[in-house]
Specification:
The complex is a heterodimer of chains A (about 120) and B (about 110). With about 120 residues, chain A is an all-beta fold. Helix content of chain A is about 0%, strand content about 55%. In chain A, the strands form 2 sheets. In chain A, strands 2, 4, 5, 6, 9, 10 and 11 form a 7-stranded mixed beta sheet that branches. A 4-stranded antiparallel beta sheet of chain A has the order 1-3-8-7, with no helix packed on it. In chain B, strands 2, 4, 5, 9, 10 and 11 form a 6-stranded mixed beta sheet that branches. In chain B, strands 1-3-8-7-6 form a 5-stranded antiparallel beta sheet, with no helix packed on it. Classes of the chains: A mainly beta (about 120), B mainly beta (about 110).
């Protein structure tokens, strides 16, 4: 009965490859997020979607493209991977429209290592 | 710019009390979260403060002073399982959540 799940948990790949990370939530939440946590442990928002519509798109390279086929899924596709993309990527969800006070529930993270 | 400051690391003894401070500078303010993150795991929600004062939840309490741009998380009766990073995050006026780098808490027997 996992609330927010991500696959894969670990991803090791070569520079220049294209990869996808999948996220699913079974909480019935309306908003989903992608975060990047670098080696210094800062969590940085990348994207958020509310009911399949993009509401936050921070300054990330356009090699990163989110896709939300329905409100329970938010996938992240990364083209032409670079060494600096190595990080832990967390998916999260919240109940409402993504506003203040909404608790965000995080998935277990995907550890991406680009060689 | 927007900024969240927390100590990088703290050490405390099992059974003791520890206070983890967080100061924030954001464009506007709409509340502050504390999350716990064990090594290699996802952050999990601890508390949310939007009004000044202390919110108590079992062994954990969180305090907010909006005028000072300051919050703290107080952990009582420390247990070994409390060894984790504690992340402070503040909502700005654009409804974006700004995260600190976290405070790594080490509990010693």
């Amino acid at each position: 009965d996992t609330a927010v799940s991500q696959t894969p948990k670990y991803l090791v790949t070569q520079m220049g490859n294209d990869k996808s990370i999948k996220c699913e939530q079974n909480l019935g939440h309306d908003t989903m997020y992608w975060y990047k946590q670098d080696s210094k442990k800062f969590l940085k928002i990348m994207f958020s979607y509310n009911n399949k519509e993009l509401i936050i798109n921070e300054t990330v390279p356009n090699r990163f493209s989110p896709k939300s086929p329905d409100k329970a899924h938010l996938n992240l596709h990364i083209n032409s991977l670079e060494l600096g993309d190595s990080a832990v990527y967390f998916c999260a969800s919240s109940q409402g429209a993504g506003g203040p006070g909404e608790t965000q529930y995080f998935g277990p993270g995907t550890r991406l290592l680009v060689l | 710019g927007q900024n969240i400051d927390q100590p990088t690391e703290m050490t405390a003894t099992e059974g003791a009390i520890v206070q983890i401070n967080c100061t924030y500078q954001t464009s506007g303010f709409n509340g502050l979260f504390w999350y716990q993150q064990h090594a290699g795991e996802a952050p999990t929600f601890l508390s949310y403060n939007v009004l000044d004062g202390l919110e108590e939840k079992g062994r954990f309490s969180s305090f907010l002073s909006r005028s000072k741009g300051y919050s703290y998380l107080l952990l009582k009766e420390l247990q070994m399982k409390d060894s984790a990073s504690y992340l402070c995050a503040a909502w700005d006026s654009n409804y974006q959540l700004i995260w600190g780098a976290g405070t790594k808490l080490i509990i010693k027997p």
